């Protein structure tokens, strides 16, 4: 009889302990409690903007959330991510913007927790200059190579044209001691070619006639 009475009491005790253990975890879930604005001010300084509300607040919070990277997503901003963490971060961004913290202060606050990775656009400082300058340097190098190749091709294209001009000069030596072919038709053809190539009347050197 005593055992039958003890079972409901034991079950009630276990349920109470489970609820007591779960309550702190639920209360401490990120984003459930309002953000500590004093702690934020100690970290990034006093708010440098103006307090916002209504549509202006929603628009600015959306804009700032769009330049924050979701820590648990692949390349998604906090504004676009459906994750629970991104939802909490959006709420924190909204609270900070409403209190007058600027975009740079909000980004610095999250950077202190998640590192520079949390910024979708790395700031222009230190080694980050390479991230911004590398595409420009690569484009300039590619254009330089194209110009160099085109100039080389143009110079190569002009070189063969100079040789025929020198060869076609009337002063080019041609041996008149070489006899003409015995075939009269072929000999006439040779003379015509000489007349065209060297400008000789009748296909013979003027002083040789």
Main traits of this protein?
0% strand, Helicase, Ruva Protein, domain 3, 209 residues, mainly alpha
Please specify the SSE layout and strand pairing:
Blueprint: H1 2-27, H2 37-44, H3 54-65, H4 84-98, H5 103-114, H6 128-167, H7 184-198
Helix pairs in contact: 3-4
- The shape is rod-shaped
The helix/strand class is mainly alpha
Arithmetic mean pLDDT: 74
Parts with pLDDT < 50 across at least 5 consecutive residues = 19-31, 161-177
The CATH topology of the domain at 37-118 is given as Helicase, Ruva Protein, domain 3
Indicate the proportion of strand residues: under 5%
- Secondary-structure element string: HHHHHHH
The number of distinct β-strands equals 0
Classified in CATH, the superfamily of the domain at 37-118 is Cytochrome C biogenesis protein
* CATH hierarchy class name of the domain at 37-118: Mainly Alpha
Give the helix proportion (percent range).
55-70%
The assigned CATH architecture of the domain at 37-118 is: Orthogonal Bundle
Radius of gyration: 44 Å
Explain this structure to me?
With 209 residues, the protein is mostly helical. Among the domains are: 37-118, Helicase, Ruva Protein, domain 3 (Orthogonal Bundle), CATH 1.10.8; 175-204, no CATH class. Helix content is 61%, strand content 0%. The chain is built from seven helices and no strands. The protein has helices spanning 2-27, 37-44, 54-65, 84-98, 103-114, 128-167, 184-198. The termini are far apart.
């Amino acid at each position: 009889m005593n055992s039958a009475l003890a079972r409901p009491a034991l079950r009630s005790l276990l349920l109470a302990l489970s609820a007591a253990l779960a309550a702190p975890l639920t209360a401490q879930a990120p984003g459930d409690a309002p953000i500590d604005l004093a702690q934020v001010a100690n970290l990034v300084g006093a708010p440098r903007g103006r307090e916002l509300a209504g549509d202006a607040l929603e628009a600015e919070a959306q804009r700032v959330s769009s330049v924050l990277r979701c820590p648990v997503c692949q390349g998604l901003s906090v504004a676009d991510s459906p994750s629970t963490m991104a939802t909490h971060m959006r709420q924190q961004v909204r609270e900070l913007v409403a209190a007058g913290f600027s975009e740079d202060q909000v980004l610095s606050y999250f950077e202190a927790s998640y590192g520079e990775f949390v910024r979708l656009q790395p700031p222009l400082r230190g080694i980050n200059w390479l991230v911004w300058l590398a595409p420009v340097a690569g484009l300039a190098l590619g254009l330089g190579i194209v110009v160099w190749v085109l100039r080389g091709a143009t110079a190569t294209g002009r070189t063969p044209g100079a040789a025929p001009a020198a060869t076609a000069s009337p002063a080019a030596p041609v041996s008149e001691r070489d006899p003409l072919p015995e075939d009269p038709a072929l000999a006439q053809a040779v003379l015509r070619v000489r007349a065209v190539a060297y400008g000789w009347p009748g296909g013979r050197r003027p002083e040789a006639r």
